[in-house]
Fold Nucleoside diphosphate kinase.
Amino acid sequence: MAIERTFSIIKPDAVAKNLIGSIYQRFETAGLKVVAAKMVQLDQAKAEGFYAEHSERPFFKALVDFMISGPVMVQVLEGENAILRHREIMGATNPAEALAGTLRADYADSIDENAVHGSDAAASAAREIEYFFSNEELCPRTR
Ligand code: UDP
């Protein structure tokens, strides 16, 4: 199975609830390794650019307002099948539909404020990692 990298955000709702450590624990327990991480306060342009594919959707403005409402943690996770594995750990977009034991089932309040983001495919993972991290910030975990 391929070793992949994926991009992850702990959104402002989950940061505000002091859930950073609990969420990192889920990643690490699942065998995903953090290869880059930082806290960021997004501004409007950065959030709009990140979610540009949703710019015509009715929830776009609310989504951007939510994403700039407080700091986020952004990280790159590495592991076997990391993109799909991370999406499984996150659970469905709508927490009401998320499987028990997933991050969104346990920590999200609504489809709008749903605790975490994760890349959905290899191409988006590459684009999203580059949107937030330079190559120098990606630390190989060879030890
Ligand atoms: N979103 C929302 N209302 C909706 C659908 C989506 O606020 O009706 C937000 C939600 O924060 C979601 C993000 O838009 O995580 C991106 O939506 P997408 O369908 O790409 O879901 P994801 O990949 O995050 O599961």
Summary: Helices lie at 12-16, 20-29, 44-50, 60-67, 82-90, 103-107, 122-132. The first strand starts at residue 3 and ends at 10.
